[in-house]
């Protein structure tokens, strides 16, 4: 039985001021007017039916998730009382799914990626799911790099293992942190490194076994949550235990030390749209390199990203800026400084301006 787990608990602070606590990035319509989480669900519905799609999100965004993807059963919206990174998220989902389907095979996908070729994605996901169903282990999907990107982590390909439905699957050699430009160029030139997509496939029982072996504190917490599931204690136990779970990622908390790991390289277009600057990868620009959405006018301006959710933006003689306007806030930052948006959000919190967060 194939299940899909959509991780939708991130805060998306790099997309302020459009992204807010009440509507983080994965619930925004950044590309085509459709919220990212909605697009993610639509991409996989031909592979996994709605009753076996699970969404893990925060309590304050659960109602928004139900509104945007109403075909997902309410019981399949899993609420995290606190953000504890992807290992706890994936482990929680595997725990709940395995209670009703001990043989479940799970695809685990972020809610906020851009993948235009949905059919190519489904073929790759199906091949990866079939592999772990038969061979066990944990599999991650790697993107063949098209440039020496320093904003992504990388995967090093190991020995070829098998071919499934035209997809070569390799042993996963290792994960690599985000590199500098020179190292990234070497990775791309070598042909044995992939971008780390953050998409996975595994049997639920395999993941939980690795958690038990490597992360005993997480294992104990998840088992306590499982014991309370379906009883009058369920909500209270979840609320008490989940915030105490160790904060670590799937990559470094589980995959790096796992006994059997695989990677399936894919070549379709992909972006995790990690910042406003990343919109240049997925939105068309005019002849002067400007990207605009909303009521925007520019004069003698080049290379800008301007998006308005209401006010008119008029810019003249400026280059390589990010200008984002909402009804109550405006962001202006050079494209080269796009990662500093997260710092701005911190400053707004320090100032006590909770109304714009």
3D structure, described in words:
With 357 residues, the chain is an alpha/beta fold. It has two domains: 265 residues, Spore Coat Polysaccharide Biosynthesis Protein SpsA, Chain A (Alpha-Beta Complex), CATH 3.90.550.10; 81 residues, no CATH class. Helices cover 30% and strands 26% of the residues. It has ten helices and 15 strands. It has a five-stranded mixed barrel with strand order 5-8-6-7-9. α3 packs across α6. The longest helix is centred in the middle third of the chain and has 18 residues. It is globular.
CATH architecture of the largest domain: Alpha-Beta Complex
CATH superfamily of the largest domain: Spore Coat Polysaccharide Biosynthesis Protein SpsA, Chain A
Strand content: 25-35%
**In percent, how helical is the residue content?**
25-40%
Count of runs of 4 or more consecutive helical residues: 10
Shape: globular
User: Mind telling me the C-alpha Rg?
Assistant: 21 Å
- The count of strands amounts to 15
CATH fold annotation of the largest domain: Spore Coat Polysaccharide Biosynthesis Protein SpsA, Chain A
Assign the structural class, choosing from mainly alpha, mainly beta, alpha/beta, alpha+beta, or little secondary structure.
Answer: alpha/beta
What value does the average pLDDT take?
Answer: 96
Strand order of the largest sheet: 5-8-6-7-9
């Amino acid at each position: 039985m194939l299940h899909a787990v959509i991780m939708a608990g991130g805060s998306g602070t790099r997309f302020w001021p459009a992204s807010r606590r009440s509507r983080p990035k994965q619930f925004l319509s950044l590309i085509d007017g459709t919220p990212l989480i909605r697009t993610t669900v639509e991409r996989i519905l031909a592979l996994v039916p709605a009753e076996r799609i699970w969404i893990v999100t925060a309590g304050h965004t659960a109602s928004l998730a139900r509104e945007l993807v109403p075909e997902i059963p309410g019981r399949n919206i899993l609420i995290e009382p606190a953000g504890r990174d992807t290992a706890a998220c994936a482990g929680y989902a595997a725990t709940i799914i395995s209670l009703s389907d001990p043989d479940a095979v799970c695809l685990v996908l972020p809610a906020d990626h851009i993948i235009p070729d949905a059919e190519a994605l489904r073929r790759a996901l199906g091949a990866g799911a079939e592999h772990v169903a038969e061979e066990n282990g944990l599999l991650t999907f790697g993107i063949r790099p098209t440039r020496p990107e320093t904003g992504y982590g990388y995967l090093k390909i190991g020995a070829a293992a098998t071919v499934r439905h035209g997809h070569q699957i390799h042993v996963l050699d290792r994960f690599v942190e985000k590199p500098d430009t020179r190292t990234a160029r070497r990775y791309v030139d070598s042909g044995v490194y992939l971008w780390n997509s953050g998409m996975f496939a595994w049997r639920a029982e395999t993941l939980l076994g690795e958690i038990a072996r490597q992360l005993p504190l997480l294992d104990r917490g998840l088992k306590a949550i499982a014991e309370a599931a379906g009883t009058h204690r369920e909500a209270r136990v979840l609320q008490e235990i989940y915030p105490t779970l160790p904060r670590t990622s799937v990559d470094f908390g589980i995959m790096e030390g796992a006994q059997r790991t695989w990677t399936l390289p894919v070549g379709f277009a992909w972006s995790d749209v990690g910042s406003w600057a990343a919109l240049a990868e997925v939105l068309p620009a005019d002849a002067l390199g400007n990207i605009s959405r909303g009521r925007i006018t520019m004069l003698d301006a080049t290379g800008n990203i301007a998006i308005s959710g209401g006010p008119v933006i008029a810019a003249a003689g400026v280059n390589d800026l990010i200008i984002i306007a909402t009804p109550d806030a405006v962001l202006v930052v050079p494209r080269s400084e796009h990662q500093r948006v997260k710092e701005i959000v911190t400053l707004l919190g320090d100032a006590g301006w909770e109304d714009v967060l």
